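note to self — DONT lose this again. spent like an hour looking for the file last time. sequence + predicted structure for the chain T wanted, 276 res
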Amino acid sequence: MIPVSNEAPHLIRLSQVLAERQTNVEAILTAVTVSGTSSVYLTVSALSRRIDLMIPYHPDALAAIAPHLEPPQAPPRAMLRIFTDGDRLDAGLVIAGPVPARDAVDQLAPAPVRDAWLAAVDKLLAVPGAGIISRVTFLTKQRGVIGVGYPDREPDAEDRFLRTIDEVAGQLGVAQTRLTMWKALHPTLGPGALSVLTECTPIGPAPQLGFLYGNATWDQAVTVANKFADPARSRQIAAGLGTLAGALQSDEPRGLQIDIGPAGLDVSVWIVLRPS
């Protein structure tokens, strides 16, 4: 295993959390180390063992995660996102910033399904103030993600936003019962900035949506996760998030993400891990 210096205690803490999540600690620590970053962005599920990381893109970091891949030509300031599911690791190239919807869809989706995805993305962008803020190109499988950002929402814009989500969810085939659960929680998560994530696969737009809230607290994360979990797990979820906050020495998460899709619902916290 790649040695972790005692001068990098934040990576020691990260290795402990990765081990608890039963993922490939050595590959991920290698990627983080060779990227040369001092900060690591984490997305940690409250309901599963999933933990994703985002670090500056570096070809050697990608090689640690997917040694069989030819490194792509990445634009300046691109990020590498590492997706984990136990021992399985996937990698994606994250590019932030505005871009026309057609350009984003053409870059990320296979030609036969582009128009269907573009229709959903265009609808998300029809809300006043909305704009594409990020896109993810998976490097280990055929999949793309577009993030549409919404600034602080006035009451009239909020009504339009919720109607748009209903329309897009129906267009994508998102389960109505899961959408209803999200809509019940949405007003409790504050009026701040929000982004909506939509994905596309080789067979078409995925029947799922992600909602990333920029303001969050650990208490909110526990409350939201408990709404989606079996009541018997409530104490376990609270304890798990409390342990995570302590292990990573995180005062408050940077964001809260709710994902609804065919596999069910997931709640994740976004954390920035920095040297202490």
